[in-house]
Amino acid sequence: MIDVLVAGGGPAGLAAAIHAALAGLEAAVVEPRTTPVDKACGEGVMPGGVAALRALGVEVTGRELRGIRYVDGTTRAEASFRGGHSGLGIRRTTLHSALHQRALDLGVQILPGKVGEVRQSADTVTAAGTTARWLIAADGLHSPVRRGLGLELPARPHGRYGLRRHYRVEPWTDYVEVHWSRHGEAYVTPIGHDLVGVAVLSRSRRGYDAHLADFPTLTASLRGPAATEVRGAGPLRQRVRHRTAGRVLLVGDAAGYLDALTGEGIALAVATAGAAIRCLAAGQPAAYERAWTRLTRRHRLLTGALLAASRRPGTARLIVPAASRMPPVFSAAVRALQ
């Protein structure tokens, strides 16, 4: 019997397995997809996420990011990350490969397959034909484990969706650019010397090109050809009753998701995975719910405030002008995301 079985081999699941191995626990990951795994995401890792990955021994390389810039037509506001720290623009497949290799180097077993039914006893949990002391559910935004355990709350109407494509063009910025319109946002992340990723988030269910037409300032910069197909995800918001159920703990997107607006997905995935493993290693699984709440509080407050402001077209168009008129406030918000 192993110590920790992880459902899902994305960044959160692999981070949990790496944390477990570093804590002296035997871990295995169940994942049906082959490496590397791609996902529709902004691909910008904030400085805190970069530091957390390196603390796990995961060496990631990418395009350095100096800060965040908000753009609405000719109006803009920008703030650099504090202390000279940098984020990274990194292809999701590159990040996944680095995490996967680190897990293998630490002796983590990667088991092909799906978790399916989860059976629990007083001191074990069994899934995918494997028995463990604990199960970490890191199986994504629409987690089957979460659903099977009755931990998710009904979805609310008018959810937001994300679409992403890459363009073969030299980056014109070393900031993550967030372009705003009355329908949603477009996130530009420099990935390499000749590659940028452009992700759009919106409540409107339209094609990628129709969304991009709302951002003429951005489209004028995308002179290179599309380098990848459009990939989508959503609805983004996922509400969860609890993050623990017996010997099962939820981490990453499976633990509940608000929105991708502030770009903290990887940092939160690594942080919540580490908290879950620390609670298990200490024999205090019930403490994980409080730890998750504490770790995600700032993200939930900032993201919730921006979502509320962007919900109505009239207030959405005030976000960038307000940020440009109050640089200290905008800088404080950006640095709070580090």
Automatic annotation (TrEMBL):
Pfam families the record matches: FAD_binding_3
UniProtKB keywords: Oxidoreductase
Entry annotated with the keyword Cell inner membrane: no
Record-annotated FAD-binding domain positions: 2-282
Highest taxon in the source lineage: Bacteria
Record's keyword annotation contains NAD: no
A GO MF term: oxidoreductase activity
Enzyme type, top EC level: oxidoreductase
Enzyme Commission number(s) from the entry: 1.-.-.-
The name this protein goes by in its record: NAD(P)/FAD-dependent oxidoreductase
Source organism: Streptomyces sp. R11
Native organism taxonomy: Bacteria, Bacillati, Actinomycetota, Actinomycetes, Kitasatosporales
